[in-house]
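Hello K.,

You asked for the raw outputs rather than the summary table, so here they are, unedited. I folded two proteins back to back in the same session to keep the settings identical. This is the first:
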Amino acid sequence: MGLSIVQSLAMTVLSEIGDKTFFAAAILAMRHPRRLVLSGCLGALIIMTILSALVGWAAPNLISRKWTHHVTTVLFLGFGFWSLWDAFNEGEAEELAEVEAKLGGDIKINGGSSKENNKDDDNLKKQNRPVLAQFFSPILLKAFSITFFGEWGDKSQLATIGLAADENPLGVVLGGIIGQALCTTAAVLGGKSLATSISERIVALSGGVLFIVFGIQSFLSPIQS
């Protein structure tokens, strides 16, 4: 299980640093209480990690172990070359600018008349909130939903599924959660200054090499019965 924890931890850290959800957490933490942003983002990432590992664990029970092993190998190699291509062909600030534009538009839409509201209006809005928003902070729910749907179908999610199909799922979950906690905490505490100081090209190159190493290791390892 130790190897799967290390693999999952390394894969998660190199996949999440500089990702859209990393930037989203950093920007949200600049505008809202950090504990709420951290709780929402980390809660979404933990749930996504567990769901991905469950899918990976179930795959060998639905498809032969031989096929899941080969698919995992192809996924790792494919993601490795994809990350290397991203490192050499995409601008470093694209994802940050995209997230800023999306969150900035949301702030403008929702924040235009906030200064005019009085306590009666606030109480009325609170009563008219959806059921979940009455029990949880809207900021926490916003951070959760942005992160959860931002991760859905992402490269790191698919890689977690592939790793859980070929390695110990519990180790994959533990390593993934530790990695997500480290990255999200760094994003929330460091804020935009940390996000902009990180070279996305270096991270993408490192992630690409790591995925290729995992792919080669998967290709050379025997298929477990």
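The second followed immediately with the same parameters:
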Amino acid sequence: SPPPPYSRYPMDFLKPTADCPDAVPSSAETGGTNYLAPGGLSDSQLLLEPGDRSHWCVVAYWEEKTRVGRLYCVQEPSLDIFYDLPQGNGFCLGQLNSDNKSQLVQKVRSKIGCGIQLTREVDGVWVYNRSSYPIFIKSATLDNPDSRTLLVHKVFPGFSIKAFDYEKAYSLQRPNDHEFMQQPWTGFTVQISFVKGWGQCYTRQFISSCPCWLEVIFNSR
């Protein structure tokens, strides 16, 4: 892969603003699940509100089957996602309050370190692995459009991958599909697991079995 593009953007502006609904505060966050947006709308409904162009993606952090904290809206072209504050300026997972006491979850948390960086480029969205351990990514635009099962891609420390391609995502849409018109389409979602993989080659078949993982939902408008 080409050199990571993270250095071309300043890191001082990677904070959510009041324009972004359900944003994580830049200092601290309350953990939990099943958050409701203002007016009783769920997070997914809020993301699909027409005319909302204030962010290009949102990030959700999960520990196994439980979402921790609120959605983090991303407006700047680059975002660091890391565990401890000295290791970046952006989405600090270590500030989220988690009730998960699993030893495996705690072990993986300690290995997230500098985490990853999301960068929106002209050709798509790149993920750079800043940590000392592999990350695992599943995206509809990384595989053959005719593939029935999406592969999970392993990205080693110090490497980057174009995790999302807007042109491919639009070409994969089914505009005449009634179900597609009524529900969010997973083609605009990328899943990223820290340290532990999942899928056909691993004992964990589903990402919800992974200790620590991210869900990145892209704004399709």
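The first helix runs from residue 43 to 47.

Happy to rerun anything if the numbers look odd on your end.

Regards,
P.
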